[in-house]
């Protein structure tokens, strides 16, 4: 196998594994982003391309949770959809104006932050308080905008942040919080991907190849989720995030 074929095989494998992980526990961007950087794509373009690669799963998850979304009043749902879309667009534009060297320096810290979010996420999700007693109930809209900006800028750990936000903002029904997480992840990703495409930041051949592989991985991952231990998968994701963080720190100091 020549080097070019090996790179494409690596990208396909990373995207497939990311699809599996996202279907079971999340954390797929820990694989797609580093694989794209290893393939020689600049960090900003790799981040944009990675966002495209993992985006189809959000739509499928949202469609599968239509009943849960129907439990949210339409005016509230519409307002939060708009907030998420605007936040994702703003985060993407912020990434596009960030100098490449600055973003490269931020990458190890962003990966480490996302890994810590993933590791601590279950504790945060369980602390959701009912309605008015929730600590972020009055800050739900601005907090959602801030999290959406982060998601548009760097996708790692987005799902955990959204789940923590909704439970801390008074959404005690975890299935509904999960449905809102998937819907708003899809919307902010859609707007951020549109901004990346407009700016020419996406490596489309790699993105399309990885989208197909991630979709297949998501399909198989949904089946695996029936018998594979989520705790074991979470351990693999945390280990992967830690290794990638260390690797990027070593690279930045080299």
UniProtKB/TrEMBL annotation:
TM segment ranges: 81-100, 106-122, 143-166, 186-211, 232-250
Source organism: Tibeticola sediminis
InterPro entries per record: TM_pro_TauE-like, TSUP
Key words, A-Z: Cell membrane, Membrane, Transmembrane, Transmembrane helix, Transport
Compartments (UniProt record): Cell membrane
Protein name: Probable membrane transporter protein
Bilayer topology term: Multi-pass membrane protein
Keyword Transmembrane helix: yes
A GO-annotated cellular component: plasma membrane
Signal peptide positions (record): none
Family in the record: Belongs to the 4-toluene sulfonate uptake permease (TSUP) (TC 2.A.102) family.
Main localization of the protein described in the UniProt heading: membrane
């Amino acid at each position: 196998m020549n080097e070019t074929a090996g790179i494409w095989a690596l990208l396909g494998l990373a995207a497939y594994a990311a699809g599996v992980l996202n279907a079971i526990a999340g954390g797929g961007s820990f694989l797609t982003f580093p694989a794209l950087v290893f393939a020689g794509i600049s960090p900003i373009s790799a981040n944009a391309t990675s966002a495209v690669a993992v985006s189809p799963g959000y739509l499928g998850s949202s469609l599968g949770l239509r009943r849960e979304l129907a439990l949210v009043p339409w005016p509230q749902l519409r307002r939060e959809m708009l907030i998420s879309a605007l936040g994702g667009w703003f985060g993407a534009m912020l990434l596009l104006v960030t100098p490449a060297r600055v973003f490269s320096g931020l990458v190890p810290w962003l990966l480490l932050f996302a890994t810590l979010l993933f590791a601590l996420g279950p504790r945060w999700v369980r602390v959701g308080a009912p309605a008015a007693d929730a600590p972020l109930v009055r800050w739900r809209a601005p907090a959602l905008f801030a999290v959406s900006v982060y998601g548009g800028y760097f996708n790692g750990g987005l799902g955990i942040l959204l789940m923590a936000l909704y439970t801390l903002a008074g959404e005690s029904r975890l299935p509904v919080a999960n449905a809102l997480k998937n819907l708003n992840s899809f919307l902010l990703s859609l707007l951020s991907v549109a901004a990346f495409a407009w700016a020419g930041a996406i490596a489309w051949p790699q993105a399309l190849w990885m989208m197909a592989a991630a979709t297949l991985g998501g399909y198989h991952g949904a089946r695996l989720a029936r018998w594979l231990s989520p705790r074991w998968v979470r351990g693999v994701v945390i280990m992967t995030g830690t290794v990638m963080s260390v690797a990027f720190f070593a690279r930045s100091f080299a």
